[in-house]
Every structure is written in C-alpha cells, then in structure tokens.
Amino acid sequence: MRYETERTRRRGHADTATDTLARGLGIFSIALGIAEVVAPRALARALGMKGQEGLITGYGLREIATGIGILASKDPTPWIWGRVAGDGLDLATLATALERDNPNKRNVGIAMAAVAGVTALDVYCAQTLSRESPHPLPPLQDYSDRTGFPRGVEQARGAASDFEVPRDFRTPEALRPYTQPDLPQNPMPSM
Amino acid sequence: MRALVWHGTTDIRCDSVPDPEIEHPRDAIIKVTSCAICGSDLHLYDHFMPGMKSGDIMGHESMGEVVEVGAEAKGKLKVGDRVVIPFTIICGECDQCKRGNFSVCERTNRNGHIAAKAFGHATAGLFGYTHLTGGYPGGQAEYLRVPFADATHIKVPDGIPDEKLLFLSDIFPTGWQAAVQCDIQPTDTVAIWGAGPVGQMAIRSAILLGARQVVVIDRIPERLAMAEAGGAITINFDEESVVERLNELTNGKGPEKCIDAVGMEAHAAGTVDAMYDRVKQAAMMETDRPHVLREMAYVCRPAGTLSVPGVYGGLLDKIPFGAIMNKGLTIRTGQTHVNRWTDDLLRRIEEGQIDPSFVITHTVGLEEGPEMYKIFRDKQDGCVKVVLKP
Ligand SMILES: NC(=O)c1ccc[n+]([C@@H]2O[C@H](COP(=O)([O-])OP(=O)(O)OC[C@H]3O[C@@H](n4cnc5c(N)ncnc54)[C@H](O)[C@@H]3O)[C@@H](O)[C@H]2O)c1
Ligand SMILES: [Zn+2]
Ligand SMILES: [Zn+2]
C-alpha cells in the first residue's frame, strides 16, 4: 500500500504484503533472539559449539534489537538490511561448526539450511522495500481547514436547496416512497 | 509553444510543438493562463484508456484569454475575453445539445465513426482525450485551439482569481452533476467512493444540496482529512469494512445514493475482515478494477441510485447485475454536461457559497508537469489537485 495509515506506518508503498512480511520477520527476530538469550547452553550443545555460549547470547541480543527496530521504526528497510547482514554472520559462524569431528554436524547442516531460507526471505523483503521507497517521504499535510465553504460547513448545508433538479435527473416517482419512507407527503404508490 | 505531450505509457513530456492556428471559422485560440491535471488524465498516463497516439497534447481543464477568433465565432467571443473552456466540445445546436446533453453532442466528435464502433453511437469531442473522442489537442499548453468556440466556452468576469474559476471546466460541474444525478432528498445518506478532486467536489455539492449525511470512502489520510473538512463522515477502506460501516451509519438499510468518483483504476481493500469477505463471495467479486461499482451495487439501499461520474473505458467483469435489477436500482452516469450547470455554479462561486480552490495542493510551471503526473498518480506529498501555469 502506498499511503501512511496507523497500520502500515509507511508511505510510498506499493502493497501491504511486504509490510506484513517485514513485520513477520521482526517478530521472528525477537523470538529467535529470546531463544538464544534464554537457552544458549542447549543451543550450543545441539550444534556441537560448546564454549561459544557467550557468542550465542550476543547474537540473541542482536536479533532482539533488530526485531524491535523493525517493529518500532517508521521505515523498517535499514533494519531488514541489518537482518541480511546478521544472517551472513550466522551462516559464517555455523560454517565454523561444520568440522569433521563435530558429532552434531547434521544439526548444523539443518540450522544452516533454515538460516539460508530465512536469508532468502530477508533479501527479498529488503529489496522490495528499498524499491518501494527510494526517498524518505515527506510528512502528512494538514488539510483540516480546507472546507471549500467560505461561510463554513454548517452554513453550507442545504444552501443550494434553491436548485431545481432537472426532470431527466429526478428519481422515478415510483421509487421515491421507498427511499424516504418517513416522509408523510409521499403516498404509497398504488400497485 | 510548450505543451505536455503523451509519448506512451507513463511517458509525458514537456515538448516544443507548433502553435495552434484557426482551422475553421468557428474556432478561437486562447492563451492559457491556468490548467490542471485531472484524474481522467491518469487513465491516459497509465494507458488504461485506449486510443492515444504518441504526440497527442494532454489536458482538458484550461482557462485563459481569447487571442484570436474565427469569423463565425465573432458574434459570441472577442479578443481579450476571459474564458474557462469546458472539457466537452459542444456545437450548441444538435438535438442533444438542445436538451442540455452536451457530453453526447452529435457534431463535435470528428472521429464519431470510431466512437460509434466502440460504443454503438458517437459521443462528443473532448479536449486531449484519445482519438475516440476526436483526438483534439489538449490544453496543458501555452495556447489552445477551441473548436466550436462560439458554444464551447464559459465567459467569466475579471476580478476573481483563476483558481476559483478554473474548475468550472470539469471537476466542479462533474462533482455537482454526480450529486444532481442522485436527486438528493433531505433524508438521504449519500455515500461517495473516492476522495480525489471529483469526490471532493461531489461532497461539497451533496452538502450544498442538503443531504442528511455524506459519507466518503478512500484510504489516503490527507484526502480523507480534506473530505472531513468539507462536512463528510470518512471511511478508510484499508482499515474498516466499507459495507459494515455504511450499514451501521444507515441503521442497517444502506445509503440511498451512491457515487462512484473512482472509476476504472479502483484499488481493492488491502485489509479485509470476515464480513467483507462474505460480501465479496456473495457478490462473486474479485480484486479487479470495477471494485467500486460492485461494492456500490451491493450496499445501496433498494430503490436507490448509483451515480457514476468515474470513467470506464470498455467492458467490465462480474458486475452484480442481479443485485441492481432485484433491488430496483437506478444508474445514472456519463461524461459531464459541463455547460448545463456552469451559469448556476459561477453564480454560487460569486455569491460565496463555495470556493473550489480549496482542492489545489500544488501549483507549478508547465515544465514540472511530467513530474507532477507521477506525484499526483502516486498520491505523494499530499497531492490532491495540481494546477499548471504555462
Ligand atoms: N464524468 C466525468 O465527466 C468526469 C470528469 C472528471 C473526472 N472523472 C473521473 O472521475 C474519477 C475520479 O477523478 P479524480 O480526479 O478525483 O481522480 P483521483 O485518481 O485523484 O481520485 C480517485 C480516488 O479514488 C480512490 N480510490 C481508489 N480505489 C478506491 C476504492 N476501492 N474505494 C474508494 N476509493 C478508492 C483513490 O485513493 C483516489 O483518492 C476518475 O475516474 C476520472 O476519470 C469523470
Ligand atoms: Zn477531467
Ligand atoms: Zn451538439
């Protein structure tokens, strides 16, 4: 979508789908970040990365920050690019765990495949967002004083009731009573 | 002279072109002092409307000063007259013109045979609006040749700025006719789709004509704010269910009068709730362009009226004609019969009932026209109406 509303928060958009995707990625970021912060030890064990708990916690904090950035900012584009960079870091780190003697190599492979999948989504989302809003968009204009009525709206109501609707523009007589049932002067049409 | 010239889809340029000349004794040439970009021009810009050729000059909302008059127009116009030019070219003499049905004048469309192939019968010639309607060069230019100039003009007095008068050429009478087509009663709710320039004028007209309540539907905050300033209740179709809200505002009965001020490039709502989905299914809707027509036919109160100033070019898909027929709806539509209303509307401007200049958000030189087409189309920068000063 192209216009700023409470829901989309961004201007210059072609569709809401990318917005929704960006928000989804933001929530995913936070969830993953929390998992990394809360259970670095379990993760390290599963990936055969013992001793790197501190690094995992750090990455978790990064994910949470990025997620908040995506959800809270007016324009999530730079934050989604941030996710792309983070994905690269994640993949590089996981790659170091792919050594021959790691008994959990299979898990690392699965994790890398998952990250690669999310990376593809991140890149797609970031590119679409960048295409949609190449320039920062100016703020909303205030048109609340543009009544169009020099004497104000209340004075304008019915001010043109001297106008006589030409015959060819009038509602067919038979349809009138139905459209204004509470007007007594309109008799029910005879069947 | 310089003019905005159509070269292809989304390709409009400010080019140097030959000055127009008197080609027929009924012609006049005007020096354009102000002109505007219309929502109808966007259908050409986006090339939804067929029948444009590369090199065509755009524009059908212009005013200025008469600088040359053909022999047969001399009785009605003289050099120096200040005139607004209606977008419909009229002869003033044919059967339709005599009835005030100016936009279907039988004489002014020099490509009437093409129009008749497409529509069954020819319609009037229009400025800067495809070869179906005569292929007449438009008025987004320094000079404009006005064919049938003895009839095709609105004389306006000095001492009122261009900005207040310019829209007599199109959008003010268009919004007015849209409201008049509704034959508004004091008990009526008038729902207007589209808060673009035409919708804005329709709101003001419906208020002046005494509607009980005027509801407007759009999704662009600036336009909704401008609509609200004019006395309308607003619905943001991206955030609310249009059908549900309209029923709520009318005790479940639906608005008596519905106006389509959107036309063929309607957007379908981005966010839809369950109710809206049901409506979509019931009416066999798809997210297609005549979206507004479908919604109006569905929500309108039985025996109500659909007024359609929005422009359509050809064939529409999945119009719920069952709803229209069974509810006994009246449909009124057409290009505006501009001169039928302008004397009365000029008087209302002079009397201070209305000042149509409220809608102008951008005033720029002709060279900036191509850029403004894009800004207007994309509703950027709070753009509602662009006036160009050649
Ligand atoms: N009958 C005539 O003689 C005549 C004259 C002038 C203009 N027009 C037509 O009137 C229409 C409007 O012109 P404009 O200058 O106001 O154009 P515009 O493009 O500026 O305005 C159209 C508005 O409709 C809104 N819209 C899009 N989809 C919608 C939906 N599903 N529901 C509600 N609103 C929706 C858009 O957000 C926009 O604000 C165009 O089709 C134009 O060609 C007709
Ligand atoms: Zn127009
Ligand atoms: Zn005629």
From TrEMBL, chain A:
- Biased composition annotated in UniProt, kind: Basic and acidic residues: 164-173
Q: Where is this region: Disordered?
A: 132-191
Query: What name appears for this protein in its UniProt entry?
Result: Cyclase dehydrase
Specify the species: Microvirga makkahensis
| Lineage of producing organism | Bacteria, Pseudomonadati, Pseudomonadota, Alphaproteobacteria, Hyphomicrobiales
Automatic annotation (TrEMBL), chain B:
For whether the record's keyword set contains Lipid biosynthesis, the answer is no
Recite the UniProt keywords alphabetically.
Metal-binding, Oxidoreductase, Zinc
* Cofactor requirement: Zn(2+)
Q: InterPro entries, per this entry?
A: ADH-like_C, ADH-like_N, ADH_Zn_CS, GroES-like_sf, NAD(P)-bd_dom_sf
Q: What are the Alcohol dehydrogenase-like N-terminal domain coordinates in residue numbering? A: 25-153
Kindly give the Gene3D superfamilies that the UniProt entry links to this protein. Answer: Medium-chain alcohol dehydrogenases, catalytic domain, NAD(P)-binding Rossmann-like Domain
> What PANTHER family would the database entry show?
DEHYDROGENASE, ZINC-CONTAINING, PUTATIVE (AFU_ORTHOLOGUE AFUA_2G02810)-RELATED (PTHR42813:SF2), ZINC-TYPE ALCOHOL DEHYDROGENASE-LIKE (PTHR42813)
Q: Which family does it belong to?
A: Belongs to the zinc-containing alcohol dehydrogenase family.
Protein name as annotated: Alcohol dehydrogenase catalytic domain-containing protein
